[in-house]
Design a protein that fits this description.
By secondary structure, this protein is α+β, with helices and mostly antiparallel strands. The protein is built from two helices and eleven strands.
Length: 248
């Protein structure tokens, strides 16, 4: 009997833990499509799940780290049913990107007008850049609004391995690669050199093949002429021999 009570109590406790852990798992997050390398450009997705049973999400606000790591280029991909607004802020220190001086950067992106129903989620894609070279991650603070006027503030910055109750979306940045720092130009140059080398090799093979063909033709002609000469000589010898036999 005591064993049964303990088993029931353990089952209830486990269910309670899972219920409490559920909301913490289904939070607003951000992930790159492919790779988000330092110093490069990337497409990122903000994934927004609906955690309520009787309300729908109808607004998402994402604040950018404009003071710590400003991003000069932020372009939203259209999401059917949603209207997007991009806000910018003046920079205390201008940025220089591709030889141009940038005096403002995106501070907030807001999506409204759509609906994320209970048990559903929605992704909001953005093309962003140039990503910082001196950071391992970017922290975005997000506000999720429901149609019952409830606002969930995903703004707590994770510290160490412990995840807060309402963590802010964090974009992890990978190490910079040659593809983001002139690697494309180097690759094209190498490709051109390889192509040029291939063309030279092809011309050399064609020339060698032509020389071999000429040599073969010359040999064939010489053998043909020699055969004709031998054939004529044979006919002449036969003719003379037949005349001698006739006289005899």
């Amino acid at each position: 009997m005591n064993v049964s009570r303990i088993a029931v109590a353990g089952s209830v406790a486990a269910s309670t833990v899972l219920l409490l852990a559920g909301p913490a798992v289904a939070h607003v997050s951000v992930q790159p499509q492919g790779e988000a390398a330092k110093g490069g450009y990337a497409t990122i997705n903000f994934k927004v799940p609906n955690e309520r049973d009787k309300a729908s999400t109808n607004k998402l606000e994402v604040s950018f780290p404009v003071t710590e790591h400003p991003l000069a280029s932020v372009m939203p991909q259209p999401v059917p049913g949603w209207t997007v607004k991009v806000e910018k802020a003046k920079l205390a220190k201008p940025l220089e990107i591709h030889g141009k001086k940038i005096t403002e950067a995106v501070s907030k992106v807001t999506w409204t007008g759509g609906k994320i129903g209970p048990g559903e989620f929605q992704q909001f894609p953005l093309s962003v850049g140039q990503l910082p070279e001196d950071a391992d991650e970017l922290v975005f603070k997000a506000l999720q609004t429901y149609d019952n006027n409830e606002v969930v503030r995903w703004i707590e910055v994770p510290q160490g391995d412990k995840e807060p109750a309402l963590p802010a979306p964090v974009l992890k940045l990978s190490a910079a690669s040659d593809d983001h720092h002139g690697g494309g130009a180097k690759g094209a140059e190498a490709k051109d050199e390889k192509s040029e080398k291939g063309e030279k090799d092809a011309h050399a093979e064609e020339s060698a093949s032509s020389d071999d063909g000429d040599s073969s033709d010359t040999t064939a002609r010489a053998l043909g002429i020699a055969g004709i000469v031998v054939g004529v000589a044979g006919l002449a010898f036969g003719f003379v021999a037949s005349r001698r036999r006739a006289r005899a």
